[in-house]
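Backbone-to-sequence.
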């Protein structure tokens, strides 16, 4: 993976989604008293956008960005400095989930969209549970709703293009999971999996991001990058009509493209599952 190229994309996407994560972090503050939380681990932190959000929600805590990628941790450090939290921020490099034992314990552990990258997800949750102080809170982000950026009928090509892209992504996700070391088929009932890991489920909520049309330029630019990647992945499986529609959407001068059409939006949901140690 070219992390120098991927880092800005990951950071931009997390920044766009940060309003829903601020809502999620505020909810966590009703489950774990911010006045008592002294240490927060952000497992799979990437470039640290969510680490700074968690620092806002828990203003008395040391916040720790944990990721296996040095380039992303460097971005997290830079972001912490810009946010004015460098004095209570640290970054730890760790392969997930193998290196978790060296991270120390915390009052809140956030695992954002990383458990599904581990073959045996229930084992990953058990490993995460060992990081909790007694009574500590684990928050696992998994699931939600796929993004919607366009209407069903975009005025050219077959209607339902994004639904077909979702189906293609679901097939890719299944292949990705099947190729992981030690993969185990598990029903993704997250509260049940958390209970199996020896934790007490504490509630599940989904958080919505609604950027209505016409979306601002920074959202459109992110859509273009995302659709470029989808276009590359669909090259061998999509028909000529869908590929032609994607090409029009990516054309910066086409009035029907993502940069110019008036109906571009962003609507998605992320689901957070919580449990106590």
């Amino acid at each position: 993976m070219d992390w120098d190229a991927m880092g800005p994309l990951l950071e931009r996407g997390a920044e766009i989604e940060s309003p829903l994560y601020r809502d999620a972090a505020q909810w966590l503050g009703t489950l774990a008293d911010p006045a008592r939380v002294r240490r927060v681990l952000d497992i799979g932190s990437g470039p640290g956008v969510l680490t700074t959000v968690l620092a806002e929600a828990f203003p008395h805590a040391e916040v720790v960005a944990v990721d296996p990628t040095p380039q992303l941790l460097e971005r997290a450090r830079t972001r912490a400095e810009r946010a004015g939290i460098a004095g209570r921020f640290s970054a730890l490099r760790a392969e997930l989930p193998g290196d978790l034992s060296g991270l120390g314990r915390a009052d809140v552990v956030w695992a954002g969209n990383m458990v599904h990258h581990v073959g045996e997800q229930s084992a990953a949750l058990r490993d995460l549970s060992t990081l909790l102080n007694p009574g500590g809170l684990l928050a696992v982000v998994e699931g939600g709703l796929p993004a919607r950026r366009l209407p069903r009928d975009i005025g050219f090509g077959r209607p339902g293009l994004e639904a077909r892209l979702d189906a293609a992504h679901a097939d890719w996700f299944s292949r990705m999971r099947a190729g992981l070391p030690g993969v185990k088929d598990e029903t993704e009932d997250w509260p049940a999996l958390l209970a199996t890991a020896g934790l007490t489920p504490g509630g599940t909520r989904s958080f919505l991001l609604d950027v209505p049309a016409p979306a601002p330029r920074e959202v459109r630019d992110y859509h273009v990058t995302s659709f470029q990647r989808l276009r590359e992945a669909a090259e061998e499986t999509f028909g000529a009509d869908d590929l032609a529609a994607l090409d029009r959407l990516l054309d910066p001068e086409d009035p029907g493209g993502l940069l110019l059409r008036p109906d571009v939006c962003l609507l998605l949901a992320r689901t957070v599952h919580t449990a106590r140690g």
